[in-house]
Specification:
Chain lengths: 345, 137
């Protein structure tokens, strides 16, 4: 057992709006200032998880120092982009995403050679997201693009520019909750309910992952982009098996409706679709072990969600072989040569 | 339409050509077998009237019909090379010529039986049929 870790979800934040303004045109910077733009907190994680009161989000040097020595790569996720999918001014959101990317590439990536980056993208502006992907595609430290979903499911044409650009560049697409689901028109709904309580939201958020997963399957995304990697992060794990079992059954029964799906949907798990885990997603431990044992090899990636707290860590519960796969081998299958699977120890 | 038939050696009498409406399955019952027989523009075909999924009478009331071939997303293409029988219970589809499932959905298949037409008489070959299934591609 090597104990090496590729941490697929380390949250990274810009400290202030002022830090981002140099990465946009003067005119846009003026627009941001005049609109009273409030930078999403670096100390709060969309969908849940906050730092202790008064504690600032770590700077890159602190994040680097906090990485255990066993971590061979840490994928930075600019979580401040995630609430933006619910904003009305989508052009502003796209400029904001671009500034976040430029800031992180300049101020974070050089601080630790283990750092890798998920580019910030905004789902309402797919063409802008595709441009960002094209801009950084050759930077081997960039491993993917992260977005929070809107009320259009990901298999639909709206997302095509993003998925196509990512597939062409060999970058993964990470999907992460925005924290706005069920609250704002145009965002994904949660069973038709506007959840009034954080716990209600947390119980229902898996619906969004399930809906997008089904859409990606049924709309033939993986038939069109057979190498595309989709990563669900922050949605937990409890939605996955029922969704994929049911998808398999319905495909067997009604293949005629989706003749472009030539393999059972479950075969996508571990090949095109990955799910990040850090904790046991509130499952009893024996249930968690069993759920993991039912998943195809390659399905799970490990993400610490650092610096935000998580629940009961999943890693000690897994058997040695599975833990090795989850901790780094599966990330290699997802990100290819952009992570140091073979070169570092 | 259910038929009562008599065995003649290895052949099962399955009525007359004129009894068969194009693409509409008829059921031929022996003491041990229930077989669906259909006349298509490509000739007669016969399959076991028992879905390998959950044992449904797959041919009762069924028609041999077209299905979709593998295509790019939303570019539906009818597969004119083959006809299928679609199980009424769970819509599993099997090719009437071979009994094979359509589209890689399952390795289970319908047993298929050769059909002989002599003059106006239709026969299902019993022994031949029972021998063929698993080896055929």
């Amino acid at each position: 057992v090597s104990g090496r870790i590729i941490d697929c979800e380390v949250q990274a934040a810009a400290p202030s709006l002022g830090a981002l303004l140099p990465y946009m045109s003067e005119a846009w910077a003026e627009r941001f200032r005049r609109s009273g733009f409030v930078l999403p907190s670096g100390g709060a994680h969309p969908g849940g998880g906050t730092l202790p009161l008064g504690q600032a989000a770590p700077q890159p040097e602190q994040a680097s120092a906090a990485l255990p020595g066993t971590v061979i790569n840490a994928v930075l996720v600019p979580h401040q982009i995630l609430p933006s999918s619910g904003w009305c001014d989508t052009k502003l959101s796209a400029v904001y995403a671009s500034a976040l990317n430029a800031y992180l590439v300049e101020h974070w990536l050089p601080k630790d050679e283990r750092f890798r980056l998920m580019l910030a993208a905004v789902a309402p502006e797919p063409d802008a997201a595709a441009e960002e992907i094209a801009r950084y595609a050759l930077d081997q430290r960039v491993v993917g693009v992260v977005l929070s979903p809107i009320g259009v499911n990901m298999g639909q044409r709206h997302y095509r520019p993003i998925l196509q650009a990512a597939a062409q560049a060999g970058l993964a697409v990470m999907v992460h909750p925005s924290g706005q689901e069920g609250n704002i028109p145009g965002m994904p709904t949660l069973g038709g309910i506007g959840p009034r309580h954080p716990g209600e939201y947390a119980c229902l958020i898996g619906q969004v992952a399930a809906a997008n997963m089904a859409s990606l399957i049924y709309d033939g995304t993986f038939s069109e982009f057979p190498n595309l990697q989709i990563i669900f992060a922050g949605f937990g794990l409890d939605w996955l098996l029922p969704t994929i079992w049911h998808s398999d059954m319905e495909w067997r029964n009604l293949r005629i409706d989706i003749p472009w799906v030539a393999q059972p949907p479950s075969s996508l798990l571990g090949r095109n679709v990955r799910v990040i885990i850090s904790d046991t997603d509130s499952m009893p431990l024996d249930a968690f072990r069993h759920v993991v044992s039912l998943l195809p090899q390659g399905t799970l990636l490990y993400g610490s969600n650092s610096p935000f707290p998580t629940g009961q860590s999943a890693l000690p519960i897994l058997d040695d072989k599975t833990r090795e796969e989850v901790m780094h081998a599966n990330a290699s299958g997802t990100f290819g040569t952009r992570v140091n699977f073979l070169t570092s120890a | 339409v259910e038929l009562s038939v008599s065995l003649r050696g290895e052949r099962i009498a399955a009525g007359q050509v004129g009894d068969y409406e194009l693409n509409q399955f008829r059921i031929v019952e022996t003491g041990t077998l229930s077989i669906g027989v259909v006349r298509t523009e490509r000739g007669f075909f016969a399959v076991l009237n028992k879905c390998p999924h959950m044992g449904a009478p797959v041919c009762v009331g069924s028609k041999a019909s077209l299905t979709m071939r593998l295509s790019r997303p939303f570019e539906y293409e009818l597969d004119h090379d083959d006809l299928v029988v679609r199980c009424p219970w769970h819509r599993w589809e099997f090719r009437v010529q071979t009994g094979k499932a359509v589209g890689n959905t399952t390795r289970a298949r319908l047993l298929s039986f050769p059909v002989l037409v002599e003059g106006n008489e239709v026969f299902v070959e019993r022994r031949e049929a029972l021998r063929t299934p698993e080896k055929e591609k």
